[in-house]
Structures are given as structure tokens and as C-alpha cells.
Amino acid sequence: MMSKKQEKYSVGIRIFHWLTSACVFTLLIVGWYMTSLEESVPNKYSFFNFHESLGIVVLVVTASRVFLKFKSNQLELPSHLGPYEKKLANSVHFLLYGLLFLMPLTGILMTLLGGYKVPFFIFEFPNIFPTNKNASKFFENTHGIFAYTIAALIGFHILGILKELILKKKNLLKRMI
Ligand code: HEM
Ligand code: HEM
């Protein structure tokens, strides 16, 4: 049962938050790095395989996290936040959750419609999709735009936490560690 004293996210949510965070930082760095490599770089496609596999981990973790979020008692935003700040924080969180689904989904669709199989570390999923290069290109562009969007939102998310710490001396991090 949630009591008024509950000040921390549940352990599952905390683990999923930091696991997702580590995966997404790695995916952004690897994503931008691998697409900057020349075709002649011998292990270019090992980076693609790693990137795609880790992206699927994010999809599975996010689905489990959202399930857990709605199944368990939800932690309210801190009461010292004003209504406008609460709306802003909730909107950023909502957009982050949305992109945590949309990034992997656009990646998977771009790969499958491009005529490739999606790897998962040492395995490969079969590809039953018909190849459609135009549709693949569309999802590739969307994936690229979403990457900048999620990076900007993460920056905004961190700034929000820093703002509370510096201006109001409220350490929100304690709720997530
Ligand atoms: C890829 C990076 C990240 C993503 C996608 C992300 C996503 C999220 C989401 C969706 C929530 C809302 C949780 C909920 O109510 O269900 C949240 C909360 C939180 N995040 Fe992050 N986060 C990321 C990185 C970080 C980093 C680097 C920090 C450290 C500064 C951080 C600190 C927090 C804190 C303290 C909360 C709890 C806010 C509160 O309710 O007081 N996050 N994060
Ligand atoms: C949260 C998950 C993900 C993040 C944050 C992410 C991030 C990125 C970034 C930053 C790039 C470089 C974009 C550019 O240079 O335009 C990229 C490219 C790419 N991503 Fe992801 N990605 C994720 C999931 C996935 C998944 C699940 C797949 C496929 C199964 C995938 C497949 C690809 C491919 C094939 C490219 C190269 C596109 C090209 O050649 O331009 N990504 N990703």
C-alpha cells in the first residue's frame, strides 16, 4: 500500500530507470558514431548489430517498466512543485516514454523494410516483411529526428532536476536512487 511517507520510486522502477538511461546514452553515442563510419571500416556492421540488439533491450525494458508503473502504486510528483512545473515534468516524462517506444520501433521497421534481419546479440529474428526501400528511408529519417528529440528531452529532464537542486535545494535524485 502507498502511504503518505512513500518518497521513493519502487526498486523495480529505479532499476529500470537507470538501466534505460545507460542503454539510451550508449545507443545515442554508438548510433551517431556508426553512421559516421566509412563503408571500408571492417567492423562497421558489428556496431549496427550491437546498436540494434541494445535498442531491443530498451523496448522490452520500457514495456516492462510501463506495465510495472501502472500495476504498482504510483509515486506523486513532489508537493513543492507548482501546477505549471508538474504539468511540464509530466509532459517531459510522457514524451520520454513515447520516444522510448518509438525509437526502437522506427529502428526495427527501418531494418525490416530495408530487407535486413533484426539481430539480437547472437540470434537473428526472421524477416517476414516485404522489402520497401521508400518506407525504410522514411523510418530511417524519423529515427534520426527522434534521436535529436530524445537527446534534447533528456537534457531538459536533467536541467529540471538541477534547477530544483540549485534554486530550491530539493534533491529529486534521492527519489530515483
Ligand atoms: C536516457 C536518459 C533518461 C530517460 C529516458 C529518463 C526518463 C525518465 C522518466 C520517464 C521519468 C518519470 C518516471 C515516472 O514517473 O514514471 C524519470 C524520472 C526521473 N529521472 Fe530520468 N531519465 C533519464 C536520465 C536521467 C538522468 C541522467 C538523471 C539524473 C540527473 C535522471 C533523474 C531522474 C529523477 C530524479 C527522476 C524522478 C523525478 C521525480 O519524480 O522526482 N534521469 N526519468
Ligand atoms: C532507444 C533506442 C534507440 C536509440 C536511442 C537509437 C539511436 C540512434 C541514433 C542516434 C542513430 C544515428 C542517427 C543518424 O545518424 O541519423 C541511429 C541509427 C540507426 N539505428 Fe538506432 N536507436 C535506437 C534503437 C534502434 C533499434 C531497435 C534499431 C533496429 C533494430 C535501430 C537501428 C538503427 C539503424 C539501422 C541506424 C542507422 C541508420 C542509417 O544508416 O542512417 N536503432 N539510432
Short description:
The chain has 177 residues and is mainly α. 68% of the residues lie in helices and 2% in strands.
3D structure, described in words:
- This protein has 177 residues and is mainly α.
- It has one domain (11-175): Up-down Bundle (Fumarate Reductase Cytochrome B subunit), CATH 1.20.950.
- It is 68% helix and 2% strand.
- The chain has 4 helices and 2 strands; from the N terminus they run H-H-H-E-E-H.
- The protein has helices spanning 11-36, 44-71, 83-113, 133-168, and strands at 119-120, 123-124.
- The chain has a two-stranded antiparallel sheet.
- Strand 1 and strand 2 form a beta hairpin.
- Helix 1 packs antiparallel against helix 2 (44-71), helix 2 crosses helix 3 (83-113) and helix 3 (83-113) runs antiparallel to helix 4.
- It is elongated.
- The mean pLDDT is 95.
- The site of one protoporphyrin IX containing FE has 24 residues, from helix 1, helix 2, helix 3 and helix 4.
- One protoporphyrin IX containing FE binds next to helix 1, helix 3 and helix 4.
